[in-house]
Amino acid sequence: MQSKTSFFNRTVFLHDLKRWWPLTAGYTLLWLFLPLGLLTALNHDPYLSAWNAQYDALNIAGNVGYWSAFFTGILFAMAAFSYLTNPRATYGLHALPERRETLYVTHYLAGLCSQLAPLLLTVLLSMAALATHGAFSARLLEQMSLSLMLPPLFFYSFAVFCMMFTGQILAAPVFYGALNVLVVGMELLVKAFAGNFLYGWMDSIEPTLTAFSPIVKLVENGVRATQKTYEVLENGVTLVEETHELYLLGLDWLLIYTAAGLVFAALGLLVYRKRHSEATGSTVAIDWARPIFKYGVTFCAALALGQLLYFLFFGQFRSSGSYSLPGTLGCMALAGLIGYFLAEMLLKKSFRVWKSGWRGAVAVVAVLVAMGCAMTLDLTGYEGYVPDVDDVQAATVSMNLYNSSAHTYLFGIRDPETIRLITEAHQSVVSDKARQLEWNDGSQQRDYSETGAAYGYLSVDYTLSDGRLVQRRYPHIVIFADELDDPDSLAATLTALNNSETAVVARTLGRYYYNSDTDPRTLPDLRFTGGDVYLYRDDSRDRVLTAHEAELIYDAVLRDVAAEHVSASLFENEPVLNADITLYATYSAPDHPGDRGVSVTHPSDVPPGRDMVTYDLEITERMTETVATLRAMDVDVTFG
Hints:
By secondary structure, the protein is an alpha+beta fold. It is built from 20 helices and ten strands.
């Protein structure tokens, strides 16, 4: 008789289903609350329409589905492959005349079916509840099925993959949970580590590698019901359009992770085929994974625990290049050694690990010291890098000096001359690093008024021609009035930037924010529509400006700018008008969404084909043209 190879054993499959039926029953009971809740709401809420019931059903399924799969995936994986953590069970099953492939596929399918069957029942009962009130929808059936059944395919498969690497039942959820957030966690720790050493370090606290940490990505991206469609234009603007159809937001990522889950399931089989039965009971059951585990724990401990110790004992008031090198290296080396020997104890199942592990411990300390020294010496070139003007597509700079009225907020600058001034100021900060750090080490005790200094912060962003983003932030800069005659000094380069034509217009028309894309001098067919004046007085009222008055004020501001009436000093706290003056205008938008047939809602005073822009003015005493124009309008002009 010809033998036949099988990947499925019916007896083992049914035995698995019986063995963990309480887990399956509890899981089913939890999900039955969804159709029961829908039926109750439909029967007793007179304001719940059929469409809203569909929306609520899909929204709950989308939001709860991936969280449920995340927590239950590891539970079913532990149930399906728990025999790999018990030597007696492992040897017993592996002694059966069944191939490893048959055992793996059968146990895997038993755990997967135990999750998908309750979810399928939930979908069918939910549809039945909706159908009793005329709210059944084939599209909703499809979307709910996807939102509930796709997440388990990834999280359960990944949990099974993790189970293949350990012989300890309690180690499995630790590995599974840690690996789900490992990439994002390490990214944040590395950024924090770099922030201790690198002068000018600036990076968003938002992680960028969330795609490699599935649960984080799904939380960030959101899996939920929506009735909106999103269209991203070439200029980065996102158009949002309301529809009457229900969509599952985040379905793209669910499909990606489902494909990844199938890959992990296949990889788990490959690992299981090579796994030795004797590894049962070991923290790490695969030989080649042992050093990865040991040194992974070591460097995670060094970065996490080491930085915590450093912050507590040395770094609470240090950042961006101001650091204690011995303190950092000492804390990270200590934490790294703790992690190293802890991992060694888990692998060797013994507390006597010094004799066998001291060489690795020395190597770990050497690597950590080398990392710290590399950062200190700026071997990466991060601190000293200032882009060439020709390589910069756009630049953004924010500067504010706290003991003067000088501030500059320039967004999206594209003209080469202003970009050149920005790079020169940036280079001056880099060149003055040593003195800046030395001065700011005792900044809380310094009297800036007596030294002729001004202090504040500076941040610079560059968008390069190749699409890269370069960001630098200097939270504590100090400039000195007696260095203005030195053209390379920080005081001189910042003054030149502050007094550039672009910066002067920005400071005057953009008190809080100014984008070069809305420069009124370049906008096509600019038309002022009005404005507001709010005086800082208890008995004052808002003054509404007409379109003509707004245009008169704007023309006066440009005359003051041309006559250089705007304050030019970074060391002078010039009185500012005690009022908020806002001007409103519209301009022709050549690439307006309406031109492409997209429905867009406009404010009542903005006609189709035009966009609105707002200018918040900052008026000083020297701006005589603007002051005279305001007084001619009977605006109470006072400065403080």
